[in-house]
Amino acid sequence: MMNKLTPEILVLDDDPFTLKLLARILANLGYNSVTLCESGHAALKHIDNPADRPDMILLDLNMPKMDGIEFVYQLAERHYTGSIILFSGEDEHLLQATEKLILMHGIKIPGSLRKPVSPEKLGALLDKWLALPQAGTQQTVKLHGADELRAAINNGELLNYYQPKVEPASGRVMGVETLVRWNHPRDGMVLPSEFIGLAETHGLIDELTRVVLTGALAQAKAWQEAGLVLQLAVNVSIDNLASPDFADFIAGLAAKAGVAPRDIVLEVSESHIPMNDMSAPLETLTRLRLKRFRLSIDEFGTGHSSLVQLRGIPFDELKIDQSFVHGAWSNKTVQAKYDASMAIAKQLDMEVVAVGVEDKNDWNNLRRTGCNFAQGYFIAKPMPAADLPGWIKTWHERMKE
Ligand code: C2E
Ligand code: MG
After folding, report:
1. CATH number, domain containing residue 86
2. What is the position in ligand 1's atom list of the atom closest to the CA of 319?
3. Does the beta carbon of 379 sit less than 6 angstroms from any atom of ligand 1?
4. Are 318 and 297 in contact (CB under 8 A)?
5. Closest ligand to residue 320's CA
6. Could you tell me if 369 and 334 are in contact, meaning their C-beta atoms sit under 8 angstroms apart?
7. Which of 260, 324, 353, 396 could form a disulfide with 337 if both were Cys (CB 3.0 to 4.6 A apart)?
8. For ligand 1, atom 37, which residue shows the shortest CA distance?
9. Structural domain includes residue 126
10. Could you tell me the residue range of the domain that residue 71 belongs to?
11. Cα-only R_g, the chain
12. Residues in the chain with pLDDT < 70?
């Protein structure tokens, strides 16, 4: 956590000359805690160290490898709650669109600058920023390190919760989604948003997925034997899909557990689907599909995949992100995004799951629009496996009313 008078500033630009220039301007303005990065990857590596999280990022929009927009997505993934000032040679329109995107991710942005950056304008923007409440501090959540996570995975501290998916038309419980938690000995139940990114950036995600999937498959088998017919969904990371043997690995685990691939859904978040090189994940997805696993595109609407790109990937299911579900009935813009997602799913012949059904109005909206499946707090919060049979009983009673 930074003192307001000495904010940590990170400058990201692919051009070394601009970096040097900005460093000098910042030094003249009295900012001494400055880190310079020439690529998005270098910047993310720095940011992934909890102690080094900057309070302000000066971000160039146009960079060859990871551009500014993708970098913002990566920041959002990491729940960056600091601020950004954009600078770019691009036109005003593009800057404004990017500013909106940044705001949508809950990142503060006091303004943007055109290149070449003027010292006066940058100074004025930083002054404006420092005057904002809480500008120089990050409201960081408890942060954990990679070594701690690695030990937790090995020590069995990860625990699967399960959230039911139901059919609004009939009330039938069709399956569950596996949602991992970290049962931390000191901090209690830690949510995945706080450690999945960490696992991905520190090469721990394959091991994490293996542990989650193994537990979930054993659970699904136990439910099956108890006469509960449930489809099992598990989230996989795009990094998992990049490993060439991932399809065989999953198939092996499923076979060993005695659960048929057609009863297993693998969910991949849309926001992680790369805009350019999709070849390695695509190969794995196609092989998984050949093995009869069901594939789902998750958090749909938060990414930037195009229809053309989606057509090329054999997804069976589309999950509409909760931000386009809860409250859609009372907000035209949200409803429009929900409707558009429904239309895309229909056009691509995918089943639709709406996530974030929080109340009766949301539920009725799904019924009215013919959404196939629903998931959300109105139905049930994620729960330990042992609570599921009891929940199913009360759910059936609720449905009778
Ligand atoms: P997701 O796959 O989109 O999962 C849905 C998230 O929305 C879950 O958060 C769930 O608890 C939450 N949710 C469900 N219904 C509602 C609702 O009505 N209102 C609100 N406000 N939230 C609702 P959770 O469990 O914190 O998981 C967050 C994300 O972490 C997941 O998003 C998924 O992307 C990721 N994740 C979870 N488990 C794993 C895992 O085993 N592997 C990987 N790679 N990612 C995982
Ligand atoms: Mg999911």
Report:
1. 3.40.50.2300
2. 3
3. no
4. yes
5. 1
6. no
7. 324
8. 179
9. yes
10. 9-131
11. 23
12. 1-5, 133-143, 275-276, 306-308
